[in-house]
Each structure stands twice: as structure tokens, then as C-alpha cells.
Amino acid sequence: MTENEQIDEPISSNTLDSSKNEKSEKSEWEKISLESTLTLPQLMDFKEQLHQYHGSRVQLNGEKVERIDTAALQLLLAFINSPDVTVGWIEPSKELCKAASLLGLNSHLGLSSCHS
């Protein structure tokens, strides 16, 4: 074989099918219910919980949130802005909206239509 000759290997249908399966599996929305209190002491567990959903489509249910601090909002912001995750909200609580609004994070967290 000379330098200019190339071997083009065809993509097998198995390779294409497996990528379709991976995409269809990842297109399902995963639901995460946020705890009533999300403050500094709970953040390590919360971070680990969020980490398992990287590469997924996630719906955050914030209806139970009664107390959330700046550190938890920052963690949510980092998660939401991660390029390998898609996030939507289900029923964010008034307390969650109020805390995000106080820090000017509503639009950054995707809570623009929040009732703050």
C-alpha cells in the first residue's frame, strides 16, 4: 500500500443503532425533587445527587423548598449552566423564587416566570 492510499472503514449499522439507543435513553426527563431545606450542611449530598444526572435532561421539582441559601443557589446555577445537562423546573416554591430573586438569579436559573 502506498502513502496516498487510505483505507476507509464503513460505519457498521451496529454503531449507528447503538448511538440512536443512547440518544433515546438520554432524551427521557429525569425528575429530581428538591428537599425542603437546601443549605450548606446538605450541599455535599446534593452535589453528589446532581452529579449523577450529568448528560441527562432533568426536571427539578422545587415545590417543597422552604429554605435555600446562596451556596445552594450557586450549586444549582453551576448545574444548570453545565453544557451536558438540560434543566427544566416543576412548581418552584415561593421561597425558592424569592431567594433567587434577592440574588438576581431568577433568569439565570430559568425561573423568569417565577412568582416571587
What report would you give on this structure?
By secondary structure, the protein is of the alpha/beta class. It has a domain at 30-102: 2-Layer Sandwich (Transcription Regulator spoIIAA). The protein contains 4 helices and 5 strands. The protein has helices spanning 13-26, 43-51, 70-80, 94-102; strands at residues 29-33, 37-38, 57-61, 67-68, 86-90. The strands form 2 sheets. The protein has a 3-stranded parallel sheet with strand order 1-3-5, with no helix packed on it. A two-stranded parallel sheet has the order 2-4. α2 packs parallel to α3 (70-80). It is globular, with a radius of gyration of 20 Å. Mean pLDDT is 82; it is low at 1-25.
The CATH topology assignment of one domain is Transcription Regulator spoIIAA
Strand content: 15-25%
Instruction: Enumerate the strands of the largest sheet in spatial order, edge to edge or round the barrel.
Output: 1-3-5
Number of DSSP E strands: 5
In CATH, the architecture of one domain is 2-Layer Sandwich
SS-based class: alpha/beta
- Distance between the amino and carboxyl termini: 70 Å
Uncertain stretches: 1-25
Number of discrete helical segments: 4
CATH superfamily grouping of one domain: STAS domain
Question: How much helicity do the residues have?
Answer: 25-40%
Main sheet makeup: 3 strands, parallel
Tell me, rounded to a whole number, the average pLDDT: 82
Order of helices and strands: HEEHEEHEH
Shape summary: globular
Q: State Rg.
A: 20 Å
- The top level CATH class name of one domain: Alpha Beta
